[in-house]
Amino acid sequence: MNKLIKGDEVIVIAGRDKGKRGKIAARTGVEHLIVEGVNLVKKHAKPNPMKNEEGGIITKEMPIHQSNVAIFNASAGKADRVGIKQLEGGKRVRVYKSNGAQVA
Q1: Which residues contact 89 (CB under 8 A, 6 or more apart)?
Q2: What are φ and ψ of residue 66, in 5° steps?
Q3: Strands (E), 1-104
Q4: By the number of CB atoms within 10 A of the CB, which of 14, 23, 42, 54 ranks highest?
């Protein structure tokens, strides 16, 4: 079970975008995430008339390693770690390490 999944709100804890918050848009591979509004780069793109795309300089979100982000705990108002707890029925759920509350 992944501790960070698509749709979670995370905060960047390391790198040039440290302190920025955003939602996880996608997972790319086992350890990399694409976070909305984080790790933006400028790419030079050639025009492609077949796909009806214009050329020029475009801003694109690039993957960031999952060790550089932490889940945002809204009740505490800061970054938190995630643990996995097994319920009585055998179901596994994600919980915040600081207060033991279940991740929504």
Answers
A1: none
A2: -70, -20
A3: 9-12, 21-28, 32-35, 40-45, 56-61, 64-65, 69-73, 78-80, 82-86, 92-96
A4: 23
Contact at 8 Å (CB) between 101 and 80?
no
The DSSP code for 88 is: T
Domain segments of the chain: what residues? 9-76
Domain with residues 9-76, CATH architecture? Roll (2.30)
Model confidence, pTM: 0.85
The answer to whether residues 66 and 4 touch, using CB atoms and an 8 Å cutoff, is yes
pLDDT per position as a tens digit, 29-71: 999 999 999 999 999 999 999 999 999 999 999 999 999 999 9
Residue 1 has pLDDT above 90, yes or no: no
HSE toward the beta carbon, residue 62, CA cutoff 13 A: 8
**Is residue 104 scored above 90 in pLDDT?**
no
